[in-house]
Design a protein that fits this description.
By secondary structure, this protein is α+β, with helices and mostly antiparallel strands. Helix content is about 25%, strand content about 35%. The chain has 3 domains: about 1-40 and about 55-70 and about 145-155, no CATH class; about 80-135; about 170-240, no CATH class. The strands form 5 sheets. A 3-stranded antiparallel sheet has the order 1-9-2. Strands 3-8-4 form a 3-stranded antiparallel sheet, with helices on one face. The radius of gyration is 33 Å and the shape is elongated. The structure holds zinc ion. Zinc ion (ZN) binds near residues 173, 175, 232, 234 and 235.
């Protein structure tokens, strides 16, 4: 059975996944999944000199086919007075940006009560300030598009190795294995695996064996008179 690609669209990802499963034929499984659109709501906000401009910018930021979930919320430009405490004008600007956003523009700063420098910084106290701030016009809305999913489906891939019928321990990690749980890895593949070699290189046992991983593998292989090694499911990735 050849692999095929299914593309689905639904209200959310969960429904899209369900739709993919619904379209599977006998013996088919999902081999790969790609999320093209997540279907979640997105919030956009834009600032501009006028509300009309901000609305236009917001509208242009929405992808084609999206629906507006929450109606446009707009704010006319305004000038307002803020009171705050700070040590100097730099701190005033930072505090305004934090409170009202980076688009807030400090128009005028008036110190009300002076701060105290203190002796060597002891008893230091910020002054209070009245700040005139211009806020630009803004527009914001929430949009959502359908969830889109592409799935590659096909027959379940054959396991590369046969199952090991016996029970015992994994030849890599020594974990106990029950009957038909482990895989039979031919000894040539087993001792030839680069990943297994790296595993041994980092194994604390290796220094006890003289520290030479190639010599150790060669030695083990020479003493191994079996045709296959038993490898548990957690270790099998080293041989695939
Ligand atoms: Zn193992």
């Amino acid at each position: 059975m050849a692999h095929r690609r299914i593309e689905v669209e639904a209200d959310d990802l969960e429904a899209a996944r369900a739709s993919v499963l619904h379209q599977l034929g006998t013996g088919e499984v999902v081999l790969k999944e790609q999320v093209i659109a997540d279907g979640r709501p997105h919030h956009v906000a834009r600032h501009a000199a006028t509300v009309a401009e901000a609305c236009e910018m917001v509208r242009r930021s929405i992808p084609a086919g999206a629906t507006v979930v929450e109606e446009t919320c707009t704010h006319e430009p305004e000038t307002r007075k803020e009171m705050l405490e700070a040590f100097d004008e730099t701190e005033v600007s930072q505090a305004i940006a934090q409170r009202l956003g980076a688009d807030a523009e400090v128009a005028a700063v008036k110190p009300l009560t002076p701060g105290r420098k203190g002796f060597l910084g002891l008893g230091r106290k910020p002054g209070s300030w009245e700040v005139e701030v211009h806020l630009p016009a803004s527009a914001e809305l929430t949009w959502k598009s359908k969830a889109k999913l592409a799935a590659e489906v096909g027959e379940k891939p054959q396991e590369r190795f046969e199952r090991y019928p016996g029970s015992g321990v994994c030849d890599v990690c020594n974990a106990s294995i029950s009957s038909f749980e482990a895989f039979k890895v031919p000894v040539a593949t087993f001792y030839g695996s680069r990943a297994y070699k790296n595993f041994l290189r980092n194994h604390p046992m290796l220094s006890m064996m003289g520290g030479n991983v190639d010599a150790y593998i060669a030695n083990m292989r020479a003493m191994d008179h079996t045709t296959h090694s038993a490898v548990c499911p957690s270790c099998i990735h080293m041989f695939e």
